[in-house]
Amino acid sequence: MASKAAPAAPALHDVPELESRNYPLLIIGVMAASLLQILDTTIANVALPHMQSSLGATVDTVTWVLTSYIIASAVALPITGWLADRIGARRLFIGSVAGFIIASMLCGLAQNLEEMVAFRALQGIAGAFIAPLSQSFMLDATRPSRHAQIMAIWGMGIMIGPILGPILGGWLTETANWRWVFFVNLPVGIVSLAILITCLPQRPRRKRRFDLTGFALMAAALAAFQLMLDRGTQADWLASGEIWVYLVITLSATWTAIVHFSVAPDPLFERALFADRNFVIALFFMVVIGIVMFAVMALMPPMLQNLLGYGVIDTGIVLMPRGVGILISMQLSGVLMRRGIDARAVVACGFLISALSLWQMAHWSLAVDEVHIIISGLLQGLGLGLVFIPLQVSAFATLNPVLRTDGSSLLNLTRSLGASAGISWMTVLLARNIQTTHEELGSHVTAATGNVVDFSTTDQFQALGDIAMSLIDAEVNRQAAMIAYVDDFWLMMWITLAAAPLAFLMRPNRSGAVSPIAPSE
What we know:
521 residues, mainly alpha
């Protein structure tokens, strides 16, 4: 009898933190809001050339449409927890979705670059609170035994949104107008807002002082870091005094912020967050996920379109299996977690599968076919999905529920920073490797290397000779670019492999039991 009664004990605590009037409808509303915010981080990228001509911007200034959103979102993210405690998480979530809808409408109506940059900054601020609040509300409204499943559902929007963004943005721009990239948010956003107003539960508020010094230091560090990444390529990185200013501000503000958070009586982030080993390791892994996932997504479309001759729709089709892989493995990871499989082993396995896909991509050439691209993308999606869900569950397993909003904002922030840094890093390496490889390949294209004409005689053919030389140079460029892409894939593969064994530094989390760490007083 005792053996039969023992398993029932944990079920007494298997209740959600918050009760909702209609749980399934609440999940739909929260996911709709979360997906809109994630889509908008990438959906506007493909519409930039059309915005440039319509808004009277230049190639350099039109990028502020993206930069203003990224900087505003990064600066606002750290205060999510404090605002949720101050005005109420329900009020903040509903206000954020409403503000995002209004800002999206204003972006679609913008008549010049100044208006667009201002409205995109407003959209970034409103959207910054949506991701952490959606994650914390989904955890709070769900029984602990089903946290793996609910994180799989939330993760689908987070991981698939950036993949669908460029495809949807390209289709809307081609078939309608670039303004519909923003107007498309309105119908879905309004439905989400109505559901949240009806079903979103109220979370208790707690008194908490605002750490103005900590926020100012983090804002300075994040803004300078994002500006450095955005302006680096145009300003030639450390050869520019402007970039040195951003770098010094980033390093000094970050170091000062760390010291301040260590000694401040009421820090912006509870110190209990950083006392949890699983959570700290999850922050590191979020940087790796940001680098690998978002850098690959940034590299693939231009490679497919510029080197392999794919159209916008064809590019979306061959990249879609990556999203399918994520969908499959996220559900699989939830099943594995419920069956008691060690989350650390699942995370390590996911990183190894992602590394395998990058190894395959590192062997591509200009002759690669659709089948190999689809298989590699599917494998990478499977790997990333296996990493994301167990990592999220392990990160929150030992955190007190009152720390979830702060924890979620930090996880989203580190993923965003990893994505920004990864994209800039890989893009810089790509550009430099193209130059050096072009020089190396070009030095071997001579009359003495084989079946190549004597270049000294091409001038007698006048225009035809120039065309022939241009064609040869273009082919050397294509080969050099492909080699540079392969070098990036090799580097990301080694980063992913190096991260895999670090998963076993986390505490084991098989049962999903929660042993909260209390917030600091």
